[in-house]
Amino acid sequence: MASEQQHYIDLIAEINALDYQYYVLNESSVPDAQYDRLMAELRKLEAENPQWITPTSPTQRVAGTPQSGFETVTHRIPMLSLDNAFSDEDLSAFVKRLQDRMNSSETIEFACEPKLDGIAVSLMYENGQLVQGATRGDGTTGEDITANVRTIRSIPLQLKGSGWPQLLEVRGEIYIPKQGFEQMNAKAIEQGEKTFVNPRNAASGSLRQLDPRLTAKRSLEMCCYSVGFYEGGELPATQSELMAQFGQWGLKINDEQAVVQGVQGIVDYYNQLAERRNDLAYEIDGIVYKVNAFNLQTRLGFVSRAPRWAIARKFPAQEEMTTLLDVDFQVGRTGTLTPVARLEPVFVGGVTVSNATLHNLDEIERLDVRIGDTVIIRRAGDVIPQVAKVVIEKRTAAASEIKIPSQCPVCESNVERVKGEAALRCTGGMVCPAQRREALKHFVSRKAMDIDGFGEKIVDALLTANKLHSASDIYELQVDELAQLDRMAEKSASNLVAAINKSKQTTLPRFLYALGIREVGETTARNLAQHFTTLERIISASIEHLLEVEDVGPIVAEHVVNYFAEEQNVMEIQRLIALGVEWPDTVINNEALPLTGQTWVVTGKISQMSRDEAKDYLLSLGAKVAGSVSAKTNQVVAGPGAGSKLKKAEELDIPVMDEADFIAWLTEQGLWNS
């Protein structure tokens, strides 16, 4: 074989190995620029030598022209559905049925894995090469989506290693990770296109594109979980061993898989994964349990359309339908009017929901939502419930358009809509009781001035008693004034005054954040403080100087300049300082901080502090705190209950601190006093 053609073959192998690292192992061993150079070289060789092109070349993942339709595929072994369990009692009954059928009381070993919320598919490999992809369909026949699955880079075009059967049907779930889903919908909104209700619908719609080039643009991934038909080879004896073999063949598997024993094992697995569900990078709607040993699966057999040896434990639904009864507009601390849907109460995501956000006017227009409509409510984890979709087919003639207010519903000041913005805004400022209330709640909050015990009820009581008109009034409150409030004894009042006095010793980033400047969150406040070092310099900074600050763009810079241009805001700051609010004069330049340039991840539960507090400590030392572990992570702090992030850190050989080590280290840095 000519040396140039051998180089072509080696180049394909090198790029496919890099794709496996990046899309299956979530690692990267070369810079993007180097990868791009390798792809450019491959395309050049193929353009000059088209007769060399092989189906396993990474350039062949995307076909050149749209298809006219999908052919049907008959599954050689039906793709069955699973029975469902909804409680610990259901799982106990499932295990009891298995033991009764086997006439044995011995503990059964189960392979457990998350039930990904995506689309079930079948991949056929012949001599290790991908030859067909198909949807589950009705379980017996599906659609041929070969051209589309070839575009998914976590699916190998050629299996790695050796030892696979001559014909091997791999089954799994194609899904879109949360981040990819959010980016896809954000882009759709930006382009005025229809959005998807959830990641599952997005994955389904992406797989059924007749033009594979469109599918290739979607952030699809696939995790493999079983074998269908195979011949010309042998497979391992258990489900867990099969998954390990899949990994060796280059097929992506879920890293949350586990093998457990008996009822208690499967219940414990459900509980620990349910607790971490919202931290996962992808949506799951339950857990799948399978008897681990294949010989026992064979003994147990099937009933109608489901195997006896497997079951799915479902999580509470995250989407439900209900009726939109009315829409109110709530006023926030910056004057933004947020439309809130009042709903016929519905149980979704584990709680009863009667209110949901509609975000802004653009969202109302995009959804074309009306009062009286049947709507789909989505609630994922701790996310505020939102109206995800209107079921237009159920709209009646009685449905009415939402009335957009021209005056503030609280203070009756005029409402304006700034050109280019989706938000309505009350022009009343601190004259508006709603804005004043929310601004004061923000000022005293934990991440701002952190006045312990000064909660929402205290703010409301002081506003009602006409004793609070601005943030500076807080620092003139006396014990006898507070003691007159409902349910406020003298001791409680004394404690609150002590907390108010304690809050006077703060930091410049906290004080900036507490002021409630539009778009200035914790990170921006910290960046401003570290860049300018004093409040005086921030107040006098021009837009040009503000744009030099990390993460500050034109909009944020304009908000900062406008805030300090208001005389009443500067006077309020001067009054706060006169009343004793103070902070160190200078902020250490970030370049001198010990963790500058490092990326840390905090996972699990930290018993002696909150995750936010741990993050604040790290940020104060110059670190970037990320939400996921990657090859770029420098250190992981893992408390009890740490799961996939800890496992990933161990796989990548990233240093890990437990809680005790972390506390000891903070003590060494002078940040923790035990």
From TrEMBL:
GO terms for molecular function: DNA binding; DNA ligase (NAD+) activity; metal ion binding. SMART domains: BRCT (SM00292), HhH1 (SM00278), LIGANc (SM00532). GO terms for biological process: DNA repair; DNA replication. PROSITE patterns: BRCT (PS50172), DNA_LIGASE_N1 (PS01055), DNA_LIGASE_N2 (PS01056). NAD(+) binds at residues 32-36, 81-82, 113, 136, 173, 290, 314. The active site is at 115 (n6-amp-lysine intermediate). Residues 590-674 form the BRCT domain. The keyword Glycosyltransferase does not apply. SUPFAM superfamilies: BRCT domain, DNA ligase/mRNA capping enzyme, catalytic domain, Nucleic acid-binding proteins, RuvA domain 2-like. It catalyses: NAD(+) + (deoxyribonucleotide)n-3'-hydroxyl + 5'-phospho-(deoxyribonucleotide)m = (deoxyribonucleotide)n+m + AMP + beta-nicotinamide D-nucleotide. Keywords: DNA damage, DNA repair, DNA replication, Ligase, Magnesium, Manganese, Metal-binding, NAD, Zinc. Its cofactor is Mg(2+); Mn(2+). Zn(2+) binds at residues 408, 411, 432. GO terms for cellular component: cytosol. Its EC number is 6.5.1.2. InterPro entries: BRCT_dom, BRCT_dom_sf, DisA/LigA_HHH, DNA_ligase, DNA_ligase_AS, DNA_ligase_CS, DNAligase_adenylation, DNAligase_N. DNA ligase that catalyzes the formation of phosphodiester linkages between 5'-phosphoryl and 3'-hydroxyl groups in double-stranded DNA using NAD as a coenzyme and as the energy source for the reaction. It is essential for DNA replication and repair of damaged DNA. HAMAP family: DNA_ligase_A. Belongs to the NAD-dependent DNA ligase family. LigA subfamily. This is DNA ligase. It comes from Reinekea thalattae.
